[in-house]
Specification:
2 domains; 123 residues; mainly alpha; 2 strands
């Protein structure tokens, strides 16, 4: 009887541990597939309700639409990231010239972002 009680306690702990939510940073919770061994007893704290939907609200969260400014800044960063990568891997230039080119491109990128913000808020 004692062994049976220990087995039930260990299985209950294993089931409750597998029913926990987990996060991958940023405070957003992601669902995952899991194997659950059930005894047929109703578990009131199990995270899935009717039809398999979770009790907690929206595990993936709402994705807000980025503003036009954020999209413009992202485009600027992507363009300059490509230019900087090309400048770093350009073997026709000396090391000093490559460093100067990368430095100049970073300054241009920062200035382009500042200009985009100014123009966005001028409207």
């Amino acid at each position: 009887m004692k062994k049976l009680l220990i087995i039930l306690a260990v299985s209950g702990l294993a089931i409750s541990a597998s029913a926990q939510r987990f996060s991958h940073g940023g405070g957003r919770y992601y669902g995952r597939s899991r194997v659950v061994i059930s005894t047929g007893i109703y578990a009131p704290y199990y995270p899935y309700g009717y039809y398999g939907y979770p009790f907690y609200a929206y595990p993936y969260g709402y994705m807000e639409r980025p503003t036009r400014l954020e999209l413009k800044i992202e485009d600027i960063r992507n363009d300059y990231q490509d230019k900087i990568w090309s400048a770093r891997h350009d073997k026709s230039l000396s090391r000093k010239e490559r460093k100067e080119t990368v430095h100049r491109l970073k300054q241009e990128r920062d200035q382009a972002i500042i200009d985009a913000r100014r123009n966005y808020y001028k409207r």
